[in-house]
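Q: Structure tokens for this one, please.
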Amino acid sequence: MNIRQQHRHIIWYIALAIVGIALILAADQLGLFEGIDTYLHDLSFRIRGELTPDERIVIVAIDEKTLEQFGKWPLKRTHYARLLDSLREASVVGFDIIMAESSPDDAELRTAISMHGKVVLPVYIENDSRISYPAATLTPCTTGHIHVEQGIDGIVRKVFHMLSYQGNAMPSFATVLFEIATDTHENLPKIAEADPDEGQSLRITQKMPMNINFYGPPGTFPMISLADIAQGDYAQSFFKDKVVLVGLTAAGIEDKKLIPFTQERNGIAGVEVHANILNNLFDRNAIQVADERIRIISAILFSLIGFFAFLKLSEKAAALFWVSALIVITAGIYSFFAFRNLWISPSLFYFTFSFLCLTAYITKLDEAARQLDNEYKTINDRLSGAMDVNSVRREETGAGIISFLSSGGIHTKVEKLLALEQQYEKQLEDTIRKRTQELTEAFSLINTMSDEMIYRLTKATESKDFGTGEHIVRIGLYASEIARMLGMSEEFVELITFASPMHDLGKIGIPDNILLKPGKLTINEYNVMKTHTIIGENILSKSSFPKILLSASIALNHHERWDGTGYPRGLKGKDIPVEARIVTICDIYDAIRSSRPYKPACDHQKAAEKIIRGDEKTRPEHFDPDVLQAFIRLLPKLELIYSLHQKPNVQKSSIEP
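A: Here is the predicted structure, written as tokens:
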């Protein structure tokens, strides 16, 4: 691929990324991701758990107990007047109870409101956008609107602290309570006056939005039944400096509100919603929403980092990176929410990051596709002389991933590559088969030459002692039969067949005057002769080949005896390596059958009887019982081996003293 093509591909993918991000941003602005964001917003509340509410806030509940005592709803307003008398020491009292219609008891209640001096009544917005003010019989009075904003899913998450209607500014219920309780306007942005330009517009304008930081599920704020206060269960001093909200909580009368903590659709009383809003004003911990520009820039930058990281990772590592990054995004957004009261809508991060990671993957896939096309062309060119040109049609290469989307798609591409591969494999198989055969023959020749060289050297050493090398041939054959009878692996059988003939290699280090002495050896000479086991082991043990190492073990231990009476180390039982236990009985059988200057040769029957029953030199206790039993079962074969591999011997020495 030339540089111009590379630049064209880069520009194409940059354009794809820009268009994709633009579409994601448009979808975000159109609110297509709002469902995901609001779900995660509400879930964050539930994961975070409850907060401790301000002790100054108390709810007086008109509950089932109150209705049982004072009668059905609505209650007579004289009860509210008497309640205000009990709450005279409260810093402010707010009624979350609509009193738009006059009542015979309004004069008494108006007097109680006036005497208390710090009472707030609600202003309510009807479904047809009409404003319901308190009844004229209760005025003048301090009011605040109790409207809260519900999302399209019916869940309350926001409140507007100021509404403007027909030139009048209406602060929120919680705002008025807060300002009276703190006796200041400095802790909250100034409630703006209505816009003069609105004039007599019938439109309600909402201003000063606040995202509510809910403290917990229903019942988080302390509630006192109105009936209990009426009965005198609470002294007036209990309410000193408290902010008291009076509201309806009885089931089946008040419409409940849904909040993030009511995931089971068990609503919360409206008075509790206003308690949460008021607590936010006290604690100054309302949920802030991240600046839109900062959110967009952060999402794009984070996604670009992921894009370039994705390009450098393998498929498996990239998948793990993608999942890990989404987890990090989620954890980071939750941390800002839980610890900084800052909400950052995460869906934009999820979609931009995932899209750019997908773009990076497609980029890598396209690059791989182009490389595959190039390999296809290269293999096709190399095999064009050996292939059936009709079976694999040449095609234009370098189209990259687009070629997979063309007619026939990836299936056709794979079929053609498989056809090429089959042709290529056939050539490779022929070449490999030929080279393998050549290597096998070469290794076999080397192995045969090595074995024959060692065998002939061993035979030469043995011939120095006994005048012929047939003894070592027989020892190897005996050992292989006994090993096979014992159930040893064929690999072990092959090793011991090769290694056992070298059992007396150490004799090469014995002086000729002892090794070739025609008579019986003295004790000192016999002790020198016994060192041939150690000499043989020293010669052979320096090798790194298994055959030679097994030979070293046999050379050292083939004169050890099962009962511990052997040499050079006096090993006993299974401390003697099994290969040496096998060769021991083979060596003794062949020695008894062979003639020596100090004894004649024995026939097979007598040799077997000496080993099985014992004599003055040989006892059955010298041998591994299992090896001895295998020897007995193999006696006919051993006799045959001896008869087939013997020549006239000219014996020259003996190792017995």
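A few notes: The two ends are 88 Å apart (CA to CA). DSSP finds 23 helices and 13 strands in the chain.
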